[in-house]
Write a structure and sequence with these properties.
The structure is a homodimer of 335-residue chains. Chain A is α/β, with parallel strands linked by helices and 335 residues long. The first copy, chain A, has twelve helices and twelve strands. In chain A, the strands form three sheets. A six-stranded parallel beta sheet of chain A has the order 2-1-3-4-5-11, with helices on both faces. In chain A, helix 1 packs across helix 2 and helix 5 crosses helix 12. The longest helix of chain A has 18 residues. In chain A, 49% of the residues are buried. At the A-B interface, helix 4, helix 5, strand 2, helix 6 and helix 10 of A face helix 4, helix 5, strand 2, helix 6 and helix 10 of B. Chain B binds a DNA duplex (30 and 30 nucleotides) through helix 2 and helix 4.
DNA sequence: GATGAATTTGTTAGCGCTCACAATGGTGTC
DNA sequence: GACACCATTGTGAGCGCTAACAAATTCATC
């Protein structure tokens, strides 16, 4: 359709065709109120005929805004972060923003500064950070990129907005479910404790146990991977110290189930297991996993809401998404 | 460090400070050869002192290049696509490009056109397409965005470059392994056949069987999800028609293993199972899954290589990454 | 119908950069 | 010393757009 050989039409070309000035065309595409109906229609017709599209670079140059949101992430191939990214992308595109990404291979201050610099070079209008690492937030506050920042998985503080799933509450739901089933010895395979989610889930586990007058001494730490869940699972299978395990995420749960299966520990007959995340596969583990669902897409949407508020009004806020317990077959009443 | 209140320094400010013209500064930042050593050093010092960073919009406006690659993807939360994206991102950033993403919620011509339009509005320099759908390629060839296109998971054709893992060969490796173990009745749970990978894997399965003089009539079709693997697995467990199953991906394998476990079909004693992808969890399935590994990061890197070649020389090419069989415990010799 | 206000349209400048070309200075050759 | 030649630096224009202001038009009010 488009005439590929000639240069792209610009404002001036549209103006000429519609018999108005370029500024009037600019007003039309920017939905300026003071344009008469007939002029607007004429201009819109010219735009359609020429297949005109506004040049982003020129616009950015003068407005000093790029209509681009930078998303800084790590572990972006993992279920949670990946889906958060998708949620942000959808909401951003709907709001007329472009989404630029920078993935962190290693979470270091250097890498974070690098990525922020990368975004600033691109003059993004705002940065969304999907790096569930405590360190990252500190690095961000130190660096102060000069554009609005929304952190996913953290409560806002200072100039940074936050969107998070209530991790602590999720952990409490999981533990409450186990307590209801009659369990007293409930262990926890935590994620790394310098991860915000990891720490919050461990805290929720601890809180729920103490509130019920139970001991919270059975705490182990994995690295989120199935492998670490497997290793810890082997130890647990040998010890048999707990009748229920609340695991920090579904992947470690998978490893745990694997280890238990190898060791002849039956789930849920001998030990109940609850995971966290509810990734699509979790319903097909052996046995299907009881877990805590996080609505990552909603999280991504909320993120953009916060970003738009920050962009428009400079407001900083925190929003919390409620988690939900999904009961499957890896948990049962204590015999 | 940066003076946050005043406006950002520009070329002219650097020039003034270094006592040269703005054009000389431009030459320095663009590594133009004809700049004397002393001038270059003086300019570089001024740049460092002022914390100058080039304005991308202004540069784009005149060069008509945005230094941005658009990545169009669907299923971006899945292991394969997500990691391909990360590979592309790393390679792109290393090459000095920004990465903009557009995720397709539904794979339709309309959504694809929409995303391409989105990228063109941003005047990306090139588009990488991670949409393993046959339809998508057709839509792309029809639309002809006017910038280089690299398709992941497809061989190049016409003006489109292609980077792919040799799916057919991967399937052949898997089936050859099963044949070596003495299996004669080898079924296949295929992915959707309008997906390039799905069709290629099914073809590889069929080819390998025929080459060995075996029947290729045990073909079922899932939708890549663990759920579909589970459903098909229930049927297979009832029929017991095959002693080995080659499954189109690891997720369906998980569902299959689940169904077999429920039905009392032992893996690998009764039936051997081979998956495809080798996602990180696959080594922790029950039992650990023999599968075909795809190096997605390498794929992403190759993608960018092709893109850079297309950008620099207008060359179109196809590159193929070799898959690798990872043998674990879901396969065994036929009793 | 004259006056002022509001609405609609046009004019001009400039965002920060690169390109094309012009000017400068130093070197070598005869 | 005059000339050409190269390396280095400077000048001017313009990429396509929006902001600020100016001009033209319409409308309401007395």
């Amino acid at each position: 359709m488009a005439n590929s050989s000639a240069r792209l039409p610009r404002l001036e070309d549209v103006a000429e065709r519609a018999g108005v000035s370029h500024q009037t065309v600019s007003r039309v595409i920017n939905n300026h109120p003071n344009v008469s109906k007939s002029t607007r229609e004429r201009v819109e017709a010219a735009i359609a005929e020429l297949g005109y599209r506004r040049n982003t670079a020129a616009r950015s140059l003068v407005t000093r805004r790029s209509q681009t949101i930078g998303v800084l992430g790590s572990e972006l191939s993992q279920y949670g972060p990946a889906n958060t990214l998708l949620g942000v992308e959808q909401a951003a595109r709907d709001a007329g923003y472009f989404v630029s990404i920078a993935a962190l291979r290693t979470v270091s201050r250097e890498a974070i500064f690098d990525a922020i610099q990368h975004f600033l070079d691109q003059s993004v209008d705002g940065i969304v950070v999907i790096v569930p690492h405590v360190e990252t937030l500190l690095a961000l506050e130190e660096q102060a990129p000069g554009v609005p920042v929304v952190a996913v998985g953290a409560s806002g503080s200072g100039s940074v907005s936050g969107a998070m799933v209530d991790q602590k509450r999720g952990a409490e739901l999981a533990v409450a479910h186990l307590i209801e089933q009659g369990h007293h010895r409930i262990g926890h395979i935590a994620g790394p404790q310098d991860w915000i989610d990891g720490a919050a889930r461990a805290e929720g586990w601890s809180t729920a146990l103490r509130a019920a007058g139970l001991a919270d001494d059975l705490l182990m730490e994995g690295d989120w991977s199935a492998g670490s869940g497997y290793e810890i699972g082997r130890e647990l299978a040998a010890e048999r110290s707990a009748t229920a395990i609340f695991v920090g995420n579904d992947q470690m749960s998978l490893g745990l189930l694997r280890a238990f299966n190898e060791a002849g520990v039956r789930v849920p007959e001998d030990v109940s297991v609850v995971g966290f995340d509810d990734q699509p596969e979790s319903g097909y583990f052996t046995p299907p996993l009881t877990t805590v669902r996080q609505d990552f897409e909603e999280l991504g949407r909320r993120c953009m809401d916060l970003m738009l508020a920050a962009l428009a009004k400079g407001e900083t806020a925190t929003t919390v998404v409620e988690p939900e317990l999904v009961i499957r077959r890896s948990t049962a009443a204590l015999a």
